[in-house]
Amino acid sequence: MVSLLKMPKNELESLQNTLRDQYEDFKAKEYNFDMTRGKPSSDQLDLCNEMIKDDSLYNDPKSSNGIDCRNYGVLDGIPECKQLFAELLDVDEKNIIIGGNSSLNLMFDYVSQCMTHGSGDLPWAAQGRIKFACPVPGYDRHFTICEHFGIEIVNVPMLDDGPDMDFLADLVKDSSVKGMFCVPKYSNPEGKTFSDAAVKKLAALKPAAKDFRVIWDNAYCIHDLNATPDNLINIFDACKEYGSEDMFVEFASTSKISFPGSGISVIVASDNNIDAIKKRFFAQTIGYDKLNQLRHARFFKNAQGVRDHMKKHAQILYPKFEAVTSALEKELTGLEIASWNKPNGGYFVSLNAMDGCAKRIVELCKQAGLVLTPAGATYPYKNDPNDSNIRIAPTFPPVEDLKVAVQILCLCMKLAAVEKLLQK
Questions:
Q1: Number of Cα atoms under 13 Å in the Cβ half of residue 57
Q2: Rounded Cα gap, residues 186 and 232, in angstroms
Q3: Which helix (H) or strand (E) holds 154?
Q4: Distance CA 303, CA 306 (A)
Q5: What is the tens place of the pLDDT at every residue in 265-286?
Q6: Counting Cβ atoms within 10 Å, is residue 243 exposed (0-12), middle (13-18) or buried (19+)?
């Protein structure tokens, strides 16, 4: 294809007319496609239907250590669930706490705990204006947590192998920087995985704040799409050399493994952090849903059972990601108006449009029946400085709908780019 950047004005005007005609044709069809969030499809949810049909909870509601899961108690989770996550995440059971259906909830509560009771020093709320580092583009809910607590967010550029560690190392010389949010494997939205070197540099980080904490949101730890998955080394193994285990608190869940609304979540942390979190749990809850924990443990049985189950997810998801990336390659390669990633896992495709075009593209798509994540959502305060990044969530719609939706997206990208070029 000919680069739009090199196209004469008269040809751009002619192309604009053609694109507008095609756009009006799409609008007339009154499509209704939703690609706003990374939700599992009904086909994926069906994979776990046997879990809710299991009547073993009725016949035997006790955990392996004899606890009646219908009753109060057990703050940190039943043994078989802790064993399952310990094997999946390669950590000790004593360093695990099992929560409810939402790891986001656990992250929010942990930050709240640090705000009111500190993380090895004075409460964060008693230390004046504090800051968090956040790799960008990133996960909007991480930004929202910071905004809720009045924590100033500092953008950290994401490189191909993880956060810009030189930038971060300089940033944490400021003692008001108290932590960092990150998704270390198949990052949201770019699908990048931190390299071994990046993980080791993070473990070796020497922040000025002794109460610095990294929220290690390992949301996509086993969410591979193909036979060549990315590998993320164990952060706590990397910390052993530097004695920095207290600096990291890991979170994960089954939200995109079993049922997002009815899964289980997990915290992994050092002995010191686990003790502090349990003290807060004692005041906060009598215990999470142990029947649901038991249901999950019996359905998956062991870590290999979870891995086998995730291969079924991949069989559903891979054609969807392929539909998106192949259409982008076919429609946009050579035009010099976009770039995108082709991830080995996770739930998103990150699309970078021509600077100054993302909001216009999202608006055009909406008018044509395709709803996308709002432009700017992948940056703190919804402020994408280049107005270019768009998070594509291909998981929910059927493949046939996706094929049409991506045609609309590509058309809108071309139209927005031509409009921008004609304004110059």
A1: 19
A2: 9
A3: strand 152-159
A4: 5
A5: 999 999 999 999 999 999 999 9
A6: exposed
